[in-house]
């Protein structure tokens, strides 16, 4: 059975939307300030329930004190918490960031893996974060679905769900891979 989204109407609508957005935002990229996959991974983890603006205020201090995956893997919980406190949920974020850094050091030779399964196996890293990092540093394999994408795709009638993974799957069927 053909789903509603695979209809030609939805593919045409998606193509029109992408054409318009491409004209308005020809060089669209994340607002999170970063210089490496590691920095983008951490910044995206910090962006949960927080604005990109706030994350960009916090990360210069965090990355100047802990410029590498190895240094963050050896950071103290209290120090990282004090730096990222203003991003909210700082205790859980700190735990996940330090554990993620340790796993990257131990399992991936201090290099952020750019493979979905490997990224999502890291503490605090879901598909949204993984898609963000992969899409900026390798060939995109999915679509970053955040609260805004959930809201807008529903408003536009492209999807009828609030489940991020289902939205990503459905959008992948109507949006050309190059986009």
Brief rundown of the structure:
The chain is mainly α and 179 residues long.
Q: In words, what does this structure look like?
A:
- This protein is mainly α and 179 residues long.
- The protein has 2 domains: 37-137, Endonuclease III, domain 1; 143-179, no CATH class.
- The protein is 61% helix and 0% strand.
- The protein is built from 10 helices and no strands.
- The protein has helices spanning 8-24, 37-46, 52-65, 69-73, 77-84, 90-108, 116-120, 127-137, 147-155, 164-174.
- Helix 2 (37-46) packs antiparallel against helix 8 (127-137) and helix 5 crosses helix 6.
- The longest helix is centred in the middle third of the chain and has 19 residues, at 90-108.
- The radius of gyration is 18 Å and the shape is elongated.
The assigned CATH architecture of the largest domain is Orthogonal Bundle
Q: What is the CATH third-level topology name of the largest domain?
A: Endonuclease III, domain 1
Unreliable sequence segments:
1-5
Classification by helices and strands = mainly alpha
Question: What integer is the average pLDDT?
Answer: 94
Instruction: Supply the CATH superfamily name of the largest domain.
Output: Hypothetical protein, domain 2
Largest sheet: none
Radius of gyration: 18 Å
Order of helices and strands: HHHHHHHHHH
Record field, number of beta strands = 0
Per CATH, the class of the largest domain reads Mainly Alpha
Question: Total number of helical segments?
Answer: 10
Structurally, the number of domains stands at 2
How would you sum up the global shape? Answer: elongated
Helical proportion?
A: 55-70%
